[in-house]
Design a protein that fits this description.
CATH class: Mainly Alpha
CATH topology: MetI-like fold
CATH superfamily: MetI-like
Distance between the termini: 16 Å
Number of domains: 1
Oligomer: single chain
Helix content: over 70%
Number of helices: 11
Radius of gyration: 23 Å
Strand content: under 5%
């Protein structure tokens, strides 16, 4: 069992294809939606037809080009300042991807470490970390994120810190419980019997078996991080005011929703598609990587 990760990396193409088939449509759809999000963020300067900050008051609130009064130069219309909605949507994906990747990864690093520590040591260590998790989760996460971001100050760094400080508990609680279960299995007892110390048992035996679970948690956390960033930018305590974000676009569109509903509807649609894609990708990868599903 100690070489599970190595064997998985060296698996023949037939086994890799079998894993992809186990992921099914969820894996394919989730991967496609996530790829679109990432490519939009990476290729924003190429894909965006206009400068997202360029204003043209004479072209303000133009509808999408397929609607009456639309302009072919602005495929998805313009906002109240005449800025290209499509360009702002594409550049907003950059903020979403940066926050999702960094915040979710840091939250996972902290939560997994504390979860493994609590689940393997038990006793007062487990009690202390468990009570800390319970106290931390007693606070409403979104409200706590807003308070932290407001205290630290506006900016991308404060958003990431607020998400990490709040959401590490999600990983810690799940990993702690699963570690305790895995340590009761025969393979963990056999590893201890041959002389492996606690750190090697966790690193070589327990952690590889947690990979499917961690992949799912990480994908879900990335979607949550996007939602939290949207909320913070909606209330005006995220990145700088001139930086395009989906939350700021929703806040602006809410004020003129009856005159130009597309300004609010389009970023909401991007958020929904992104979160669904990440959740489907995580679920599909869990099915593809889960050793229990392998024949």
């Amino acid at each position: 069992m100690a070489d599970i990760a190595v064997r998985a990396m060296a698996a023949p193409p037939s086994r890799l294809l079998a894993g992809v088939r186990r992921g099914g449509a969820r894996l394919w759809v989730g991967a496609a939606l996530t790829a679109i999000l990432v490519l939009a963020a990476l290729l924003a300067p190429i894909l965006a037809p206009h400068n997202p900050l360029e204003q043209d008051l004479l072209s303000a609130q133009l509808p999408p080009m397929w609607m009456h009064g639309g302009d072919g130069a602005y495929i998805l219309g313009t906002d109240s300042l005449g800025r290209c909605v499509l360009s702002r949507l594409i550049y907003s994906a950059q903020t979403a991807v940066i926050v999702a990747l960094i915040a979710a990864s840091l939250a996972a690093l902290i939560g997994v470490s504390l979860g493994l520590f609590a689940g393997s040591f038990g006793g007062w260590v487990d009690q202390f970390i468990s009570r800390l998790i319970d106290v931390w989760m007693a606070f409403p996460p979104v409200l706590l994120s807003i308070v932290l971001a407001a205290v630290i100050g506006a900016g991308l760094t404060s958003v990431i810190v607020a998400i990490v400080v709040v959401d590490w508990t999600r990983f810690a609680r799940v990993v702690r419980a699963e570690t305790m279960v895995q340590l009761t299995r025969d393979y963990a007892a056999a590893a201890r019997a041959i002389g492996l110390n606690r750190s090697k048992v966790l690193r070589l035996e327990i952690l590889p078996n947690l990979v499917p679970l961690l992949v799912t948690l990480l994908a879900v956390e990335m979607g949550i991080a996007i939602l939290v960033e949207v909320i913070l930018s909606f209330v005006g305590i995220s990145v700088a005011g001139d930086t395009p974000t989906w939350g700021s676009m929703i806040a602006e569109g809410r004020q003129i929703v009856y005159q130009a509903p597309w300004i609010m509807a389009l970023p909401i649609g991007c958020i929904i598609v992104s979160v669904i894609g990440l959740n489907l990708l995580g679920d599909g990868l869990r099915l593809a990587l889960d050793p229990v599903q392998r024949s």
